[in-house]
Amino acid sequence: MDVTLSNDPGHIVEADRAHIWHHMTQHKPYDSGVDPRIIVEGKGMKVWDIKGKEHLDAVSGGVWTVNVGYGRERIGKAIADQVTKMCFFGGTAGTIPGAHFAEMLIDKMPGLDRVYYANSGSEANEKAFKMVRQISHKHYGGKKSKILYRERDYHGTTIACLSAGGQEERNAQYGPFTPDFIAVPHCLEYRSQDGTSGEAYAAASIKAIEDVILREGADTIGSICLEPITAGGGIIVPPVGYWDGVQELCSKYNILLHIDEVVCGVGRTGTWFGYQQFGVKPDIVTMAKGVASGYAAISCCVTTNAVFDQFKDDTDKLSMFRDISTFGGCTGGPAAAIENMLIIEEEDLRGNSVRTGEHLENNLNALMEKHKWIGDVRGMGLFAGAELVADRGSKEPVDEKLVAAIVADCMNQGVIIGATNKSLPGFNNTLMFAPALIATPDDIDHVTDAVDQAITRVLG
User: Fold this and answer.
1) How far apart are CA 288 and CA 266, in angstroms?
2) What distance in Å separates the CA atoms of residue 208 and residue 33, rounded to the nearest whole number?
3) What's the sign of the alpha-carbon dihedral 27, 33, 37, 41?
4) How distant, in Å, are the alpha carbons of 126, 183, 222, 333, 345 from that of 100?
5) How many C-beta atoms lie closer than 10 Å to residue 341's C-beta?
6) What share of the chain is helix, strand, coil (3-state, %, to 5)?
7) Edge-to-edge strands of the sheet including 181-184?
8) Residue 170's closest CA among 379, 7, 23?
9) Residue-averaged pLDDT of the chain
10) Cα(321)–Cα(294) distance, integer angstroms
11) ∠ at Cα 374 (53, 404), nearest 5°?
């Protein structure tokens, strides 16, 4: 059968229905007449679907990616020019945009030195885990191979990344998992495990990590992998003092600190990277999503020279980091990332993230005063969450079906927001906001007005 590349909307919808397997989607409703959603155009903060409906996007492409907004012609041109001249070469050799972007990136990350290119956040985290395991074999007789991760954090979709994932519903039905990934407790003060708060809760959270270290044996632990602000697990900003405590534990027990910046990185919180909000000095930093704002696939695993140098040994043919990412060699990624970073600098989008983020926080706090269903508002920069509860006193979560109804109501109003989704049993109850860093106060008002109306209609 000949395939016709038709622009007819009906044809495209039916081709999608028949052949596309969508991410995180139950397809059964498509069998009974529900149409898959198809996005055809984006400009600034807005996207249009195939039916012509306009939406204001408050989650940067649905998965917190399009940091500089849609329709950036200069990024598209940079990609086209580069891939026409030289599209790809495997990562055993360098490329001009790869060298240039690595230099730009390291300039923004004092104390870090080396960039390993890959093509997704999951893959970047896999690289970090492999580095830790290989260091264990090369320098610790294979003993220092355990990797700590935190409840509610998320690090990707591969089996190893799910092994380091603190979201039970994302992990369900995919085991058995890779051994020697060990959980430490979450640090959501609103859901304090022992009733403490503030600095006392931070101290208790650090003690809980140390208890795990001592139980497992510090000489068996190679790294701890943490998000600077927990993203999909509910937008959790650690309490004051938490990160200082993590750094001290890593120094005390010779544990590499791996920070997953896949969501928080590249301006979202107001600094280039989320960890920079807390004065942390990581050994490994992973990133993806906002690195090129979704204009091309790229991720980076960035390390110190102290990590890098542990693989320099020409007396052993197995001593090098024996890893490859095929599409880490695509030049479109770093070409896009260069322009993306220049736009953020030239338009002061980090500053806008702070200023407009304050407006978002104020609006959400105003909604919390108005609606008894909002139990907590938290976040940093243009990255915020509002946790919905049935009762503020007991903090009983609102049923996740009602949360989904609020998201759907906003969608019907032409506003796209997010929520914890198929992640945390009983706690998929947080509305989430991560608009592009170009967002204006008017955009934020549009978003929070839609949320206000949706909560009123769904919860009363």
Assistant:
1) 9
2) 50
3) positive
4) 24, 38, 31, 12, 16
5) 23
6) 45, 15, 40
7) 114-118, 299-303, 284-287, 256-260, 221-226, 146-150, 181-184
8) 23
9) 96
10) 28
11) 40
Contact 395, 195 (CB under 8 A): no
Rounded to an integer, what distance in angstroms lies between the CA atom of residue 295 and that of residue 339?
Answer: 10
Q: Which domains does the chain have, with CATH numbers?
A: 37-66+349-459 (3.90.1150.10), 74-347 (3.40.640.10)
Return d(Cα 450, Cα 456) in angstroms, integer: 10
Determine the pLDDT at residue 33: 86
- Tokens of residue 288, six digits: 């993806």
Partnered with residue 48 across adjacent β-strands are 41, 54
Quick: pLDDT tens for 395-429.
Answer: 999 999 999 999 999 999 999 999 998 999 999 99
Residue 314 main-chain phi, psi, to 5 deg = -85, 10
As a whole number of angstroms, the distance between CA 416 and CA 162 comes to 27
pLDDT beyond 60 at 1: no
Please give the Cα distance from 298 to 309 (Å, whole number): 24
Cα dist from 53 to 30, 48, 70, 319, 411, whole Å: 20, 5, 16, 55, 10
What's at 102, amino acid-wise?
A
pLDDT recorded at residue 6: 82
Which tokens in the block code for residue 459?
């919860």
